[in-house]
Design brief:
Layout lengths: L4 H33 L1 H29 L3 E2 L2 E2 H15 L6 H11 L2 H4 L6 H32 L6 H27 L1 H4 L3 H14 L11 H7 L4 H4 L1 H8 L3 H30 L8
Antiparallel strand pairs: 1-2
Helix pairs in contact: 1-6, 2-3, 2-6, 3-6, 3-12, 4-7, 6-7, 7-12, 7-13
């Protein structure tokens, strides 16, 4: 009995889908194994996170003691330190940033050959960066949490907050990647993208809750930051895990998704324009 047209179409779709999954799974594994090859470097980054948390614990401990208050702007000392720890652990994962990888490929011409491969250039590097970041993320949290527990104890974590925080973290990592990919692709026109990456990283540092929890900022600043991507990339997942609130989570996730869509469209539009600048010789 001959298969129907619908069955053939469904089988072709499943085959194509599985092939794509296999390609991007391979990209993720390549990134992971490349990261574990330089495990000592990642270990050093984890120790750096631990040292920073020790410093911030001392700093915020002095602030809370000076004010003689157990809670400031809705945060206890324990919650504040854990927010800083998680935010820094999330941000300091995939290295080198995809911005520098794309910039280097544009400069030396390797991107002309990479584009001929049977996968999406942007999504290949997305899954590759996920693979590179997994090992670092685990070590960062282990070292950072160990120091945080030693210095200030454990906050009131909930399974609900942890699980939804992971959801928010996945969206935040995707948003951060698409922004950095857009910056990297701008190398087709300006060549040196490190100044743009530096500006973006400083926005994340100052406005993204990596040094000062967003709750400690003036109310006017918080109201503006709530609608910008910077505080919603890594601070929102950390805040969801440590200080879970349904209203804040739902609003923040909505903002995350909106910016993720904007960043994705921007990255692919820049990529399409960039392709016109490429001339591939010999294949």
């Amino acid at each position: 009995m001959r298969p129907s047209f619908e069955n053939t179409l469904e089988q072709n779709f499943e085959t194509t889908f599985l092939k794509k999954v296999a390609k991007y799974w391979a990209a993720l594994k390549i990134g992971y194994f490349n990261a574990t090859t330089y495990s000592w470097t990642i270990l050093a980054r984890g120790l750096t996170i631990a040292m920073r948390i020790w410093i911030y614990s001392q700093l915020y401990g002095a602030i809370f003691r000076t004010n003689a208050l157990p809670v400031i702007d809705g945060l206890s000392l324990t919650s504040a330190v854990w927010l800083i720890m998680l935010t820094q652990s999330f941000q300091n994962v995939a290295r080198p940033p995809v911005t520098f990888i794309v910039e280097q490929e544009v400069k030396n011409g390797d991107i002309a050959y990479t584009l001929n491969r049977p996968y999406s250039y942007i999504f290949y590097y997305y899954f590759n960066s996920i693979g590179r970041g997994l090992f670092a993320l685990m070590l960062n949290i282990v070292f950072g949490a160990a120091v945080a527990v030693w210095m200030v104890g454990v906050p009131g974590l909930t399974w609900e907050g942890l699980l939804l925080g992971l959801v928010s973290l996945m969206v935040g990592i995707y948003l951060d990647f698409m922004i950095m990919m857009s910056i990297g692709l701008s190398a087709f026109w300006i060549e040196e993208v490190r100044p743009l990456h530096w500006i973006y990283s400083k926005f994340i540092l100052v406005l993204g809750g990596m040094v000062v929890p967003v709750q400690f900022l003036p109310e006017a600043a918080r109201n503006i930051l709530n609608f910008l991507p910077f505080s919603n990339i890594f601070f929102l997942p950390a805040n969801t895990m440590v200080n879970f609130n349904w209203e804040s989570f739902c609003f923040g996730l909505m903002v995350q998704v909106c910016w993720a869509i904007i960043a994705t469209v921007t990255a692919f539009v820049i990529f399409k324009f960039a392709e016109k600048h490429i001339t591939v010789n010999g294949g």
